[in-house]
Predict the 3D structure of the following.
Amino acid sequence: MNLLPLWAFITRVRNKLFSLTIKASFLECGRNVIFETPCRLSGWKYITVGSDTFVGSDSWLAAMPEKDTERTGPVKGPIISLGFNTGITGHCTISAVRQVKIEEKVIIARYVYISDHTHEYSDKSIAIKHQGITKIAPVLIKRGTWIGQGAVICPGVTLGENCVVAANSVVRQSFPPYSVISGSPAKLIKTID
């Protein structure tokens, strides 16, 4: 007797039930959304998820509104936005205090890190974890983009539609549509004709 098909079925049912259970916690959540367990979610009420989106296991979505609302004003709308038919393979981290917007039909491979901020580290007398954050700037990943395994997308980056980011690239600047980029820091390799 082969238990693999049974185990796969049980896993799919478990993930579907988990996804249905957490759906109401988000600011918005479309139809046919799947979150594979385990996953870590923070700031649910600041996250929107489009229909037919998949978030793989061991991923972490952290929406943490800026503390300084006198300067920035109250939070309006989502801090993390996942467009419809987006696929996040797993073991990915998306961390935002202002905005990370991922448009529709984006593919994100395993171990990708996307953040709209960095940690402060200027005071050597204080542990970095207690120094707060800095360099806050929104991130926008436009429709149809493919981000390869292990890539890092830094604050303030905009990737135009249908960009390709090679595995293990560190993207510190914005690129126009149809760019193929690679490296650390990432550079334009070619443009898709």
